[in-house]
Design the sequence.
């Protein structure tokens, strides 16, 4: 919280926030009002409160945006409020918006609660017109500056507000530079820019169907509406879906008096970070560009100089900036991302926010801040998340591999990405959907490239730095990115890249290393991540960079393990997977799928069981399977000795163990035509026809199979019990749990449990060993969830099978729907995320919640877990903690993620704070 106690500063409890107040001066808000003022507006207010040099201005609230988006009209009171605040701003600045002799100019900038870099719109230099540009010339004493500012306004306004194709302005600008024989726009003089303004105005009149507005208030009002509208542009909606940002938040609009970085060599603009957002290391990080406005830096259209060079360019401003950066990081207690402008030696702060960072930086920074005493371990745990940890577990390039280096750029977002070179977003999306891995290569990216950036394995640009659009967006998405590779000449029209006489055509494979900035020709082999090596016990914390990261991960994981309530188990079907899971920190096996033990060479034995016509044939088949099953379980119990192992009895659709009906029919028909039909094939075909199901996932499987094939479940229970007895007699500590699948009614469970109890008693008598085997069920049908209170009378534990529960609640066949219409559902916003990826809290989740309550009401000591894919999903883990489960179970490689998120859930997090 801000320490500012000014009674005039609005707080969430202030009466004015409950009324129809839609506009707030920068002196009125604070950083805790992001819901109302957006992140940019709230932080501009906070910096104003701190006494930092912020240009005066005001913020139009997200509530005004919501009214506009819902009704299509601005709130009735908004215009008068804007006028009132504009009057106050003009009085403070001593000049009028757009007046002819000494114009006040303002920027109109978006600012949502969560940072959405480049996704929404900004217009600078509002207030310039054919008259006021003359006044600005006199005021600044610089004709070139005034006309450069005017052409920028027409270009931004035309594209953003009036919907003119931005390429038309770019082409005119490129033509002007070509005619002048220069390569950068700063080499165009005032006369060139005057001609360009005329061209830009003609482009607007022709393509927008109206003249560029000369009334400064009309410019501002139209720009405000354009920012509101930009909330629902395709690129903004796509970014929100990617980052899981709610679509109903709306954006605030910030109207800020202009300060100018394009007034000559003693002016400039830059972006700074209080720590390196790529690595987390402390130091001077950022980009600076002399004689430029802010969009020049972010767009990457001109290559910047490192921020450290500002010290030699303007030491006074540099020293002041360093002090402000220290103040902001101490105040926010986090990495801060800062935008600033220097106007003729005067430093101005235009924005600050908690900066996006790579996964490695997130872990390093969190532990650094603990060591500096700025935050405690609990807060450090909230500064990272499972998605970041998963990124750190991705492979990296093999340092010992033979490589062909093409060039080197700025390491903007780490990772090892390999793919075919593509030079536009459309191709990236198209090829990616066809299963190709691609690297998107551009001179610089812009917001229209977002869909291609999402589709690509990595992004490579020849321009821009760590603060360019490509770098910021890639870091936010966890995508590998190399920027500013100046040696690479990117020709998007010819769809190729040239470097040192070599031509890389579209479709050629390239590899980019976002940790070093190196770009290679061809596919570079990858090796395991050091974080994975750490979890597997093959790496320890030391002094080098990789070990430093491992040390940070170790510290945060150790704290998460200390505070979490949820235990984390693994889904594992064999000893190899079980041992790996144990190395990754698994506290048992939550799901051993025994049907996986019947594949391969054992399939014929299952066919025998299915084809058995008599009790004797069936018993023979079961006797052959028993020792094999027992051996499987002995290995599993040895691997997980001392930890619980939940064994799910056979749960496959029968068609998985039988030949394809079409192939078998053809084989039999051909054999009959040759008069050499195989008797076994004929019997098998009859069985396949008899057991054929239209929807096998809802047919004869799970408990139904155990009830229809006598002795099947008894054989499996016997194998489990005998393996447990043998392990116990060998001084081991087996902790087997027997799970009955696909139960829909308590009567099914009672019948199977009675048989299982009898088999266990027989094994105990035969071995002289007391076994502590528990019997429970998987809750994967809506009816089971709805009758959980009854089922708990016969079950000692529940494990929620959320994969099947999602299918049966939604009426989805996962194998079919994900490929057929899920993409459309995600694009239309019906899903924010696939319900098979993150649990549907309102539907499936409500059944889980009610089943937990009903089950524990019947049996207070009922053990509860989950073993679907959701068990390793970060957001779902928080839900399972909230509803009171005892453990989650997931695949071995997701165990560290589940451990971390279980700790975050226990520490009170409701989601990722590191957007």
Sequence:
């Amino acid at each position: 919280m801000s320490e500012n106690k000014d009674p005039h500063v609005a707080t969430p409890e202030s009466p004015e926030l409950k009324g129809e107040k839609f506009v707030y001066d920068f002196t009125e808000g604070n950083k805790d009002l992001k819901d109302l003022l957006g992140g940019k507006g709230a932080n501009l207010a906070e910096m104003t409160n701190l006494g930092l040099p912020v240009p005066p201005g005001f913020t139009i609230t997200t509530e005004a945006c919501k009214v506009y988006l819902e009704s299509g009209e601005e709130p009735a009171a908004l215009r008068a409020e804007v006028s009132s605040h504009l009057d106050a701003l003009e009085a403070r600045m001593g000049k009028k918006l757009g007046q002819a002799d000494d114009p006040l100019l303002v920027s109109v900038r978006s600012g949502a609660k969560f940072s959405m870099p480049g996704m929404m719109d900004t217009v600078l230099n509002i207030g310039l017109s054919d008259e006021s540009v003359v006044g600005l010339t006199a005021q600044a004493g610089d004709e070139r500056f005034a006309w450069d500012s005017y052409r920028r306004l027409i270009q931004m306004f035309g594209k953003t507000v009036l919907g003119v194709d931005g390429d038309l302005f770019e082409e005119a600008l490129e033509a002007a530079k070509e005619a002048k024989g220069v390569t950068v726009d700063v080499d165009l003089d005032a006369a060139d820019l005057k001609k360009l303004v005329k061209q830009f105005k003609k482009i607007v009149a022709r393509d927008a169907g109206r003249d560029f507005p000369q009334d400064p208030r009309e410019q501002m009002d139209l720009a405000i509406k354009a920012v509101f509208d930009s909330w629902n542009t395709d690129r903004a909606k796509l970014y929100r879906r990617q980052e899981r940002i709610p679509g109903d938040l709306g954006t605030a609009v910030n109207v800020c008096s202009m300060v100018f970085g394009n007034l000559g060599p003693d002016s400039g603009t830059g972006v700074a970070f209080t720590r390196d957002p790529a690595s987390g290391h402390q130091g001077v990080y950022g980009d600076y560009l002399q004689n430029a406005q802010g969009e020049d830096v972010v767009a990457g259209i001109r290559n910047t100089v490192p921020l450290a060079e500002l010290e030699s360019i303007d030491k006074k401003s540099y020293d002041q900036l360093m002090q402000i950066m220290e103040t902001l990081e101490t105040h926010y207690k986090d990495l801060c991302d800062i935008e600033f402008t220097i106007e003729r030696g005067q430093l101005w702060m235009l924005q600050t926010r908690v900066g996006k960072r790579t996964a490695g930086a997130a872990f390093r920074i969190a532990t650094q801040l603990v060591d500096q005493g700025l935050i405690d371990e609990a807060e450090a745990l909230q500064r990272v998340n499972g998605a970041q940890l998963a990124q750190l577990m991705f492979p990296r390039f093999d340092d010992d591999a033979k490589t062909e280096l093409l060039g080197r750029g700025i390491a903007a977002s780490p990772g090892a990405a390999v793919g075919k070179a593509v030079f536009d977003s459309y191709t990236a999306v198209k090829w990616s959907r066809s299963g190709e891995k691609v690297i998107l290569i551009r001179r610089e990216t812009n917001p229209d490239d977002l869909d291609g950036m999402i589709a690509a394995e990595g992004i490579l640009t020849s321009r821009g730095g760590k603060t360019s659009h490509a770098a910021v967006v890639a870091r936010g998405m966890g995508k590998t990115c190399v920027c500013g590779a100046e040696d690479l000449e990117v020709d998007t029209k010819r769809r190729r890249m040239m470097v040192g006489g070599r031509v890389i055509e579209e479709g050629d494979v390239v590899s980019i290393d976002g940790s070093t900035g190196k770009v290679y020709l061809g596919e570079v082999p990858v090796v395991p991540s050091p974080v994975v090596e750490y979890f597997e016990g093959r790496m320890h914390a030391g002094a080098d960079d990789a070990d430093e990261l491992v040390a940070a991960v170790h510290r945060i994981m150790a704290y998460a393990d200390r505070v979490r309530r949820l235990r984390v188990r693994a889904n594992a079907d064999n000893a190899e997977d079980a041992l790996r899971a144990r190395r990754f920190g698994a506290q048992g096996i939550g799901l051993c799928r025994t049907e996986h033990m019947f594949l391969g060479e054992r399939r014929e034995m299952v066919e025998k069981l299915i084809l058995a016509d008599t009790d004797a044939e069936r018993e023979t088949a079961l006797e052959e399977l028993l020792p094999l099953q027992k051996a499987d379980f002995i290995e599993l119990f040895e691997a997980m000795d001392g930890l619980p192992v939940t064994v799910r009895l056979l749960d496959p659709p029968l068609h998985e163990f039988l030949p394809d009906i079409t192939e078998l029919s053809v084989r039999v028909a051909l054999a009959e035509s040759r008069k050499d039909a195989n008797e076994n094939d004929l019997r098998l075909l009859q069985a396949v026809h008899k057991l054929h199901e239209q929807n096998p996932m809802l047919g004869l499987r799970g408990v139904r199979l155990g009830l229809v094939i006598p002795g099947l479940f008894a054989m499996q229970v016997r194998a489990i019990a005998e393996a447990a007895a043998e392990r116990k007699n060998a001084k081991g500590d087996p902790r087997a749990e027997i799970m009955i699948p696909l139960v829909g009614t308590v009567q099914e469970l009672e019948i199977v449990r009675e048989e299982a109890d009898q088999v266990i008693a027989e094994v105990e008598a035969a071995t002289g060993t007391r076994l502590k085997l528990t019997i429970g069920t998987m809750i994967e049908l809506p009816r089971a969830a709805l009758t959980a209170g009854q089922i708990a009378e016969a079950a000692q534990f529940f494990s929620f099978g959320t994969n099947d529960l999602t299918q049966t609640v939604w009426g989805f066949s996962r194998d079919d729907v994900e490929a057929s219409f899920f993409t459309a559902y995600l694009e239309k916003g019906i899903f924010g995320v696939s319900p098979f990826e993150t649990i549907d809290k309102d539907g499936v989740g409500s059944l889980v919640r009610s089943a937990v309550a009903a089950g524990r009401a019947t049996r207070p000591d009922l053990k509860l877990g989950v073993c679907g894919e959701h068990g390793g999903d970060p957001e779902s883990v928080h839900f399972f903690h909230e509803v009171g489960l005892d453990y989650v179970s997931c695949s071995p490689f997701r165990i560290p993620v589940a451990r971390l998120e279980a700790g975050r859930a226990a520490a009170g997090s409701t989601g990722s704070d590191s957007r």
The first strand starts at residue 23 and ends at 25. Residues 1-18, 910-915 have pLDDT under 50 and may be disordered. Residues 615-639 form the longest helix (25 residues).
